[in-house]
Structure to design on (268 residues):
């Protein structure tokens, strides 16, 4: 089933782009964060084998990045960020390594990855529609609880990462979200556990969702871009208020209804 955004959601996207709250999250567009991936900081993961048609094939691990924040600009931002800073990759054509410092600039998700590659060339980024799909994916399947399967199961972590790549790289005007077809696809058997789970996640996307997480991109023109998230606390009036979560940063999610839930800071 092809995921199409409803007219209501398209209106919500337009409203978001025109009225993004100022200083709603600990970070702002243009802030800089220097991070380091420690030994063992890419975990949990599972083996994947994927292709971006005509661009890139990747065979290796996929899962959770646990970044150590080294410094920030502005400097006071560092104390407001979770430890570790949880992230997922949104750029297969570049890489990062262990025990190196990388300085990223915070960007809106729709403006990343940069510099990008086909089908996301130049400085245009993935666009608001794909950013909204990522927001719904986080809304439905992301958590910052260290006991959740996302942090204890390589299969779950890899599946979430595969779903992110599918949204970022798929030609959504032509293909549905499915790792078996399209411009982005898995070379693993259709019965592969991470592939099956990722397709379940993608199949749940409906275009109707609630803003549970704010998402942001960490962008570096010469290094792999990453996606990070802040949990939003909901007031009794139904207005979401972004609060730091054990995930990272964020693009405000687009939704209509929700419930109050406590914010948490994940350590270790």
């Amino acid at each position: 089933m092809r995921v199409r955004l409803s007219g209501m959601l398209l209106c919500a996207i337009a409203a978001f782009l025109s009225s993004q709250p100022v200083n709603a999250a600990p970070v702002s567009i243009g802030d800089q964060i220097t991070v380091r991936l420690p030994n063992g900081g890419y975990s949990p993961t599972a083996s994947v084998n994927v292709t971006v048609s005509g661009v890139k094939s990747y065979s290796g691990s996929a899962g959770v990045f646990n970044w150590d924040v080294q410094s920030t600009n502005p400097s006071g931002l560092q104390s407001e960020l979770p430890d570790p800073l949880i992230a997922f990759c949104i750029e297969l054509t570049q890489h990062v390594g262990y025990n190196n410092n990388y300085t990223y600039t915070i960007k809106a998700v729709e403006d990343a990855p940069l510099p990008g590659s086909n089908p996301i060339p130049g400085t245009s980024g993935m666009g608001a529609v794909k950013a909204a799909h990522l927001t719904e994916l986080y809304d439905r399947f992301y958590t910052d609880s260290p006991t959740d399967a996302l942090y204890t199961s390589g299969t779950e972590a890899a599946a979430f990462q595969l779903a992110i790549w599918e949204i970022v790289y798929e030609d959504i005007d032509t293909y549905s979200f499915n790792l078996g077809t399209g411009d982005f696809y898995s070379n693993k058997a259709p019965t592969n556990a991470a592939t099956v789970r990722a397709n379940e996640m993608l199949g749940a996307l409906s275009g109707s969702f609630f803003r549970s997480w704010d998402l942001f991109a960490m962008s570096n023109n010469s290094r792999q871009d990453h996606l990070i998230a802040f949990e939003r606390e909901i007031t009794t009036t139904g207005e979401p208020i972004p609060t730091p979560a054990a995930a990272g940063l964020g693009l405000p999610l687009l939704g209509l209804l929700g419930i109050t839930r406590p914010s948490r800071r994940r350590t270790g």
Strands lie at 32-36, 42-52, 56-73, 85-89, 101-107, 184-186, 213-220, 223-234, 240-242. Residues 15-23, 240-268 have pLDDT under 50 and may be disordered. The helical segments are 7-18, 128-141, 149-152, 154-169, 193-203.
